[in-house]
Amino acid sequence: xxxxxxxxxxxxxxxxxxxxxxxxxxxxxxxxxxxxxxxxxxxxxxxxxxxxxxxxxxxxxxxxxxxxxxxxxxxxxxxxxxxxxxxxxxxxxxxxxxxxxxxxxxxxxxxxxxxxxxxxxxxxxxxxxxxxxxxxxxxxxxxxxxxxxxxxxxxxxxxxxxxxxxxxxxxxxxxxxxxxxxxxxxxxxxxxxxxxxxxxxxxxxxxxxxxxxxxxxxxxxxxxxxxxxxxxxxxxxxxxxxxxxxxxxxxxxxxxxxxxxxxxxxxxxxxxxxxxxxxxxxxxxxxxxxxxxxxxxxxxxxxxxxxxxxxxxxxxxxxxxxxxxxxxxxxxxxxxxxxxxxxxxxxxxxxxxxxxxxxxxxxxxxxxxxxxxxxxxxxxxxxxxxxxxx
Amino acid sequence: xxxxxxxxxxxxxxxxxxxxxxxxxxxxxxxxxxxxxxxxxxxxxxxxxxxxxxxxxxxxxxxxxxxxxxxxxxxxxxxxxxxxxxxxxxxxxxxxxxxxxxxxxxxxxxxxxxxxxxxxxxxxxxxxx
Lengths: 390, 129
Fold this sequence. Notes:
The complex is a heterodimer of chains A (about 400) and B (about 130). Chain A has about 400 residues and is an alpha+beta fold. Chain A has helices at about 10-15, 35-45, 65-70, 120-135, 145-160, 185-190, 195-200, 235-245, 255-260, 300-305, and strands at about 20, 25-30, 45-50, 55-60, 85-90, 95-105, 110-115, 170, 175-180, 210, 215, 225-230, 250, 310-315, 325-330, 330-340, 345-355, 365-370, 370-380, 385, 385-390. A 6-stranded mixed beta sheet of chain A has the order 10-11-12-9-3-13, with helices on both faces. In chain A, strands 14-17-16-15-18-19 form a 6-stranded antiparallel barrel. In chain A, strands 5-6-7-4-8 form a 5-stranded antiparallel beta sheet, with helices on one face. In chain A, a hairpin with a 2-residue loop joins β15 and β16 (about 330-340). Chain A is globular. By secondary structure, chain B is an alpha+beta fold. Chain B is globular, with a radius of gyration of 14 Å.
């Protein structure tokens, strides 16, 4: 099967990127040295093509009630337009379908950004859950005028007696996403995009603003300040080139992974998936169990208190920690979920799922090939805003 | 960077250089280091260890992945390059100078029978398709 390409594919190749198959997408893993790109983001500014991620807009009368039910975090925290919320979307059994960012756009419109590899599954799940939720709570969805009209016309066209979807759930693969990250991200964006300073200098972390056909969010996946900019595909190459011209270094998905690991940010499919609870994945802070609100997976989470937790590891011996290596602790065995070399700490670090009794500062043993190597349990994040925290 | 003509090669991407004293130095090729990316850790075999041809005996780890290094022929490990412990990136910057370990081959004819640069290039080209 042919690999999918983002609108920036030709730009990556022209820059000499090493391209890899990244979950079915032809993406740059680096443009030379992954470690140099990592340092560039911690010390100055770099950018990533993350157009493989999918933007999903959910619109309609019941959207807030629906998301209150769909997501483990509580969208009632979102009251100001542009404000963002990180959340897991759970199965009934409490396993994680995906992690995502939800933006509050206006009262009948939320924008959701999901992972590339899970996007189709996520959208199917959202549509199915919306239909079921609307049946159980019709009062939340009392037809808005525009929604009723479009449903009628769709039926007239096809002649099929199809059930009217309660919400308009539409993905936008035509939107590219460029992440500009690093302590100088603001200055570089402003230099590359005349007029953007006035629109973004007041932008609080984890919020976004619509600028014409663009959507500029002060978010990221590196532990540095910066922006994730959504832009129509036909304008993306020009915007990318403008940033290159202002000295923003293109960085590959390799550096993105070591940056997010140092920043203690989970990667879906490695640190959590459908088989584990967010409460055993370091994501309890994103699960709202305090409010009265019911949400998918809540009953399962309450019925199954966590026995394990996600912890940080720093390797004391020489070597490199990797996913799936076994970790032996005084309280039982665990497993590394993400491991790599940390360019900022200049040693190997990992996230590991360990028995919950394991304490910070404890020494543990990691099985690497035929050896047992020593590692220390540490608080994470390991590094943020240019500095080591360990 | 082309593969030097004075070296021998394996299909598992090691290069082999015969030294003046008849021992052989072993490293990984330009193609291998390019695939792996930035090196961060090298594990070499113990001096004195007897190796069989194609036996796993060393490891290189980049930020991205770990890869085994194999003995090109049977023989005994006589030296290791300790400089790579603190500077594994030398494998990226100059792969044909960054030897990992030296062996005394059991049989010099085994070394002569390894691939030359042209044969190795054909292996690399076939992997690209």
